[in-house]
C-alpha cells in the first residue's frame, strides 16, 4: 500500500472517530492536563487526546459543549501520524457553517468538517458543530510557546483557539512516547521528529 493511501486511511479513521460521541476516545474521568491514550479498530490506530478546554461557556450549562482539544492518531501498522485541533461549538442563532482554518500567520490549514446537528428550533434555532484543523507535526514541534488556529464560517463568524504551549508540549511528548512503543517496522516508517 502506498504511503498516500495509508495517510488517507488514517485521515478517514480520524474523521470516523470524530463522528458521533467522543466517549470512545476520551474517558469521562480524565485527569485535568493528561493526554489519554485509547485504541481504535482493534488496535490498528492509537488515539492520543489532550485535555478538553473551554473556548466558550458551556452551552446551557452542559459540560461537554464548547470545548477544544488536541488529538493525534497513529496507524500502528505504518507509523503514519495525523494531528488535529478538534472543536465542538454549540450556539443559539443562525447556523454558522464553519468551513476554513488557518494558523496565526495566515497560512491555511486543512479544515475537517466532522458533524453538524440542529439541536432545536422551538424558540429560535440552536446548533452543535464539530470540526477540526489538521495540524502538521512540524507546526506542533515549532510551537513550544503555544499555537493559535483561526476558524472561519460561511456566516462570517471567526473563532480563535489559542492552545497553550504546555498542552502542545504534552501532546508532542505523548506522541514521542507512543512512537517508541510502535513495532519496529511502523516506527521506522514514521517521520523522525523535527527539531
Task: Tell me what the structure shows.
With 195 residues, the chain is α+β, with helices and mostly antiparallel strands. The protein has one domain (3-189). Helix content is 22%, strand content 39%. It has 4 helices and 11 strands; from the N terminus they run αβββββββββαββαα. The strands form 2 sheets. Strands 1, 2, 3, 4, 5, 8 and 9 form a 7-stranded antiparallel sheet that branches. Strands 7-6-10-11 form a 4-stranded antiparallel sheet. The relative contact order is 0.17.
Offer a few descriptive terms.
four-stranded antiparallel beta sheet, 195 residues, seven-stranded antiparallel beta sheet, 22% helix, alpha+beta, disordered N terminus
Describe this structure in a few short sentences.
The protein is of the alpha+beta class. It has four helices and eleven strands, in the order H-E-E-E-E-E-E-E-E-E-H-E-E-H-H. Strands 1, 2, 3, 4, 5, 8 and 9 form a seven-stranded antiparallel β-sheet that branches.
Amino acid at each position: 500500500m502506498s504511503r498516500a493511501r495509508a495517510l488517507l486511511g488514517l485521515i478517514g479513521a480520524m474523521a470516523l472517530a470524530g463522528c458521533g460521541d467522543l466517549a470512545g476516545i476520551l474517558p469521562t474521568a480524565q485527569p485535568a492536563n493528561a493526554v489519554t491514550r485509547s485504541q481504535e479498530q482493534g488496535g490498528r490506530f492509537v488515539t492520543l487526546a489532550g485535555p478538553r478546554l473551554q473556548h466558550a461557556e458551556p452551552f446551557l450549562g452542559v459540560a461537554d459543549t464548547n470545548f477544544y482539544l488536541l488529538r493525534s492518531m497513529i496507524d500502528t501498522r505504518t507509523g503514519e501520524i495525523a494531528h488535529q485541533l478538534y472543536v465542538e461549538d454549540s450556539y443559539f442563532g443562525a447556523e454558522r457553517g464553519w468551513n476554513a482554518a488557518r494558523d496565526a500567520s495566515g497560512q491555511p490549514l486543512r479544515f475537517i468538517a466532522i458533524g453538524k446537528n440542529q439541536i432545536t428550533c422551538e424558540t429560535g434555532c440552536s446548533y452543535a458543530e464539530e470540526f477540526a484543523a489538521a495540524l502538521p507535526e512540524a507546526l506542533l514541534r515549532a510551537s513550544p510557546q503555544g499555537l493559535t488556529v483561526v476558524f472561519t464560517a460561511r456566516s462570517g463568524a471567526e473563532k480563535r483557539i489559542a492552545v497553550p504551549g504546555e498542552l502542545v508540549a504534552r501532546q508532542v511528548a505523548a506522541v514521542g512516547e507512543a512512537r517508541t512503543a510502535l513495532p519496529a517496522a511502523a516506527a521506522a516508517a514514521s517521520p523522525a521528529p523535527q527539531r
